[in-house]
Design a protein that fits this description.
five-stranded parallel sheet, 13 strands
């Protein structure tokens, strides 16, 4: 099974590894990759690299959670896949993101190809141009928006989620939480809420980039730099706000928070209502700040939180049975690479 490097759908530790590797590969600093992998939680002895390989080939081979991984620069992805198709002969190739259409077209004659449809953007749906055998949408919203492609079977495969690990007890406060406070995710509305709700404390977690300087003047805001263990924050807040103005595919934060008993209030954009389901509150994207403020104040977070947790548990399960049902990963091939 060959999997193209991508960030969406990975857990935070894997994403951390991928981002660090991508940064170094992109800036031709391969000798530092071993230390980055080590810092990201991979034991140094499991990073199977050599200095010559790092300096000349520009790739990195290591093992993460018993999975053999190869990180290569974007321009070498096709040639690396060619070698894997010839030598490893994978049963399935999963691909998405930039260049995925070319990779799907390259692999589909020798292996089963599944393209991950992770958004409604041109990039998110672009893999369909390569006619993969399967188009796996991360939500029903994405599946409905994906164009029908000859030879491609469209289906929904929700992202994998993991039940919360036992941790120290964190007291749930009256604060509300928002992740990635940028304009596309509703930061304009957030600024208005902060101002008209001086009694309400907000915790904001850095996402795609830091916007800390935009919130430092507010006395009722705590801005937290990017973190990779969100569990204490989910457990410690009564509500998660998801006021996106764009068509999000299926926000992971909604399910992750729900698994910790924290319900969400979100806009009706994209796959947000699908992720919230019946265990949260969905507001029209046209709703003004006063509607949001009134909803935040009135929300019964205890009842909603328990409903959200029960609903989210259904997504915290292995995905191999789903792949088997789609015929992508037959149960008989338990030794597949």
């Amino acid at each position: 099974m060959a999997i193209q490097r991508r960030f969406g759908g990975l857990d935070r530790q894997a994403s951390r590894i991928a981002r660090r590797i991508s940064c170094d590969l992109g800036h031709h600093r391969q000798p530092g990759l071993r230390s980055h992998v080590s810092k990201a939680g991979v034991a140094p002895e499991s990073a199977r690299t050599d200095r010559e390989g790092e300096e000349t080939r520009g790739d990195l081979r290591y093992q993460w959670k018993k999975v053999d991984c190869i990180a290569v620069p974007q321009h070498r992805t096709a040639s690396t896949l060619h070698s894997l198709l010839a030598g490893l002969r994978p049963d399935v190739v999963f691909t998405s993101q930039e260049g995925a259409a070319d990779l799907a077209a390259q692999a589909r004659t020798t292996a089963l190809v599944a393209g991950i449809l992770h958004s409604v953007s041109k990039t998110g749906l672009g893999v369909l141009a390569g006619r993969p055998h399967h188009g796996l949408a991360v939500s029903e919203f994405i599946r409905r928006r994906a164009p029908q492609t000859e030879g491609t079977r469209l289906a929904v495969l929700y992202p994998p989620f993991f039940p919360p690990l036992p941790g120290s007890l964190v007291a749930r406060t009256g604060s509300v939480l928002m992740v990635n406070p940028i304009p596309a995710k509703g930061s304009d509305l957030l600024h208005q809420l902060i101002r008209i709700m001086p009694e309400q404390h907000f915790t904001l977690i850095e996402g795609w980039w830091s916007t800390a300087d935009q919130f430092t003047a507010y006395p009722n805001v705590t801005y937290v730099p990017r973190v990779y263990d969100m569990s204490p924050f989910y457990r410690g807040h009564r509500l998660l706000l998801v006021p996106s103005t764009v068509e999000d595919a299926f926000p992971r934060v909604i399910i992750e928070a729900a698994l910790h008993g924290t319900p969400s209030i979100g806009s009706d954009r994209g796959g947000i209502p699908e992720a919230i389901g019946s265990a949260g509150i969905v507001l029209p994207h046209t709703a003004g700040p006063q509607v949001w403020a009134d909803t935040i104040r009135a929300a019964d977070h205890q009842t909603l939180g328990e409903q959200a947790r029960r609903q989210a548990v259904g997504l915290a399960r292995p995905r191999l049975p789903d792949l088997e049902a789609l015929g992508i990963y037959p149960a008989a091939k338990t030794s597949s690479t």
